[in-house]
């Protein structure tokens, strides 16, 4: 339910890997690209009492830590 830009995703990944690689985001859209997508958690909250416990940055770090351990 939290909007996150491509720039923020890139920043989190670059930070995790302590990368100094140059990243270029052109902001050019291709036919069929989704420009905005934000999860609506209202139904999950109402029916299941779901409330996210992990913020975006922590979730990305946990995923990247897991991914590093995969073949």
Percent helix: 40-55%
Helix-strand string: HHH
Give the N-terminus to C-terminus distance in angstroms. 31 Å
In the predicted model, the low-confidence regions spanning at least 5 consecutive residues are none
Gyration radius, rounded:
15 Å
Separate helix tally? 3
Percentage of β-strand residues: under 5%
The best one-word shape is flat
Helix/strand/pairing category: mainly alpha
Largest β sheet strand count, sense and barrel closure: none
* Mean pLDDT across residues: 92
The number of strands is 0
Protein architecture, described:
- The chain has helices spanning 6-17, 42-48, 56-68.
- The chain has 71 residues and is an all-alpha fold.
- Helix 1 (6-17) crosses helix 3.
- The mean pLDDT is 92.
What labels would you give this structure?
mainly alpha, 45% helix, 3 helices
Q: In brief, what are we looking at here?
A:
This protein has helices at residues 6-17, 42-48, 56-68. The protein is mainly alpha-helical. The longest helix is centred in the last third of the chain and has 13 residues, at 56-68.
Question: Layout of SSEs?
Answer:
Layout: H1 6-17, H2 42-48, H3 56-68
Helix pairs in contact: 1-3
């Amino acid at each position: 339910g939290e909007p996150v830009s491509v720039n923020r995703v890139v920043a989190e990944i670059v930070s995790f890997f302590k990368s100094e690689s140059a990243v270029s985001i052109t902001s050019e859209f291709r036919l069929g690209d989704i420009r905005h997508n934000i999860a609506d958690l209202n139904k999950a909250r109402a029916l299941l009492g779901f409330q996210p416990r992990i913020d975006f940055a922590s979730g990305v770090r946990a995923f990247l830590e897991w991914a590093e351990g995969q073949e």
